[in-house]
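Q: Got a minute? One more chain.
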Amino acid sequence: MNITQMKYFITVAKTLNFTKAAEILFITQPALSRQISAIENELNMQLFVRSNRYVRLTPPAQVLLKEFEKIYNDYNLAVANARNSFQGLSGELNIGILEGMYVGDLFPGILQYLEKYYPQVKINLHTYSFNDLIKKLYENELDIIFTLLFDLKNREMLRYKVLEKTQDHVVVHKDHRLAGARRVKLSDFIDDTIIMVSTEDSEESPRLILDACKTAGFTPKVKFASSLSEEMLWVEAGVGVCILDTRNLLYNNPSVRFLNVDMISDPSLTMAWNEEHYNPMKQVFIDNFMSDILEDDA
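A: Always. Here it is, folded:
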């Protein structure tokens, strides 16, 4: 058995799902099944009990999983240390996060991995509003950004990966007349001030909201904010309403309510990078981050 086959076994054993494991490993499911069968033949023991409804580990597979993980982790650590020494991987990796966006549940795995295998690389986490994120990504001040999908479409030289589908909500103060509503229409807020970021901060966000209001048959009263942070503060204070997605930090704030509304934009959580900017640590981050995401979804 080689180290690649060991990785295949560990991935299937941890996900207990051949389809999901194949996605994580970037191979086809039939190819993965053949590799597992080859391992079972070599070891002369059954490792998985498979049916149309489930995949389970056999007792010997449970023992192998524990031991193989130790071997595989030690192998990766040794290779990473050797590679770092050879390539001189050091320096910094600058990651930008849209202000007001909650991503705390996504980062522990990748940050622990980088700290363990690339301790000489300095990881810098920054928060910016829309335009600053894009500007700094183009100017190579940021290597990777996390933002909303609608602000990335049709931009040149940028590659991106949608990480999670999210949706827009109308956000109101808890004392607002519609705070208890289960679902609302944009036209319900014809008499309210709608707070949105200025066009200097984002061309797309206010355009999408204004177009949605126009489709709903009214021209809204608007208060422009210089950034998402300012927009959030105004709504939290009860001065107007706004449109935010489910990943916003205000989502669990008791002073506001997130109300369901028909689709206004696609604010899905998205990771993006500039394909023309070279930083060897960028691909290390992307590959291992996506592996963590797929495993968490298993």
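A: The first strand starts at residue 48 and ends at 50.
Q: Perfect, thanks.
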